[in-house]
Amino acid sequence: MTAIAARVGGIRWTDPKTVGIGGVAIGALAFWLALPPLASRTVVLPILLGLLAIAAGIWAWARDERRAGGGAVAAGLLGIAFGVLATRSSTAHLDTVVVWSALLAATLRYATPLTFAAIGGLFCERSGVINIALEGMLLTGAFFGIWGAIWAHGWAPGWEWVIGLITASLAGMAMAAVHAVWSIHLKVDQIISGTAINFLALGITGYIFIQKYGDSGTPGNIADYGIPDIHLHFLKDWYFVGPIFGQLNLMIWLSFVLLIGTYIFVFRTPYGLRLRSVGEHPRAADTVGISVYKIRYTAVIASGAIAAMGGAYLSLGFVHSFNENMTSGTGFIGLAALVFGKWRPFPTWCATLLFGFSSALSDRLPNAYGNQWGTLFNALPYVLTIVAVAGVIGRSIGPAASGRPYEKQ
Length: 409
What we know:
By secondary structure, the protein is mainly α.
């Protein structure tokens, strides 16, 4: 308690960043107060809180805190808009849509493939290689993961999902190796290389899918031997927590491990320091004996394996089937989350939760308000992607050598 009190006491409450973050919280509160279980029915409350958040954002922005200030202004505007809309809705409709435990559980499910894609991109881009091929690596992992599980069903009962994950990782590594050779050795423009990988993955997976499964599609019993859910029975009767964490897929728990492991590796080990040095100043790293090419090849290929595991989760742990182009831009949203999080694991994960929440909400809206609202909210992750890439809420600057081929002298 003493340590917590000391930390709180050390906060500079008039610091522009602190004010901006407070503004973001107030903007979120403007919307939250109009939702169950409080469900305030007056429009005055969200408007007042939203204006307060906007004022805090403008104050922070005027003092050169652009990221937190811009976020507070955006949160205030959204808080007013969504708060007023919520107060105009019936409480019955709100109770149908806003079941917080179900929404948060769905948020974790939707955020997981984004997390794997974004963390894969983090390793690659921290080494100085831009990776917009995450979409293709996800799609490759989704197809070859389910293909490997179906293939293993006849001879490795009980191990199908393990074989599927291994197959997906190997396929993702193969795609990443192509990107690595083109970007590092042949020095092709990394954006063009990544785009080519995306189209290559779309063509390969589509062709093999039609050739092997035709019009009938993948078997309908994938759920029987897909990636299992982890049942925590001791949480079953816990209010609010039980419905969220009591039955999550194994890959969701592995994504938590991946986040912690990535943070420790990248920021707390000598190997992570080498990775970051290659991405920031490859010439200096080469001068002290670090192999720039080796580090970059390793990072790019590792990113393919990690991203492909996110694709395998989609087909083997979430949907339990495969369709052509089933990732539908998930890899690009993962890349946007990486930009949002400034190439750091936990801020990036928070961005994936934001995208995941919008997808979870779009799934529940049609139950009360019709399909048109669900369709509208389905577009929200892509709007947020534009905001992230354009740098509207603070400028995100990646590793200094990102996108620049290295020529050893």
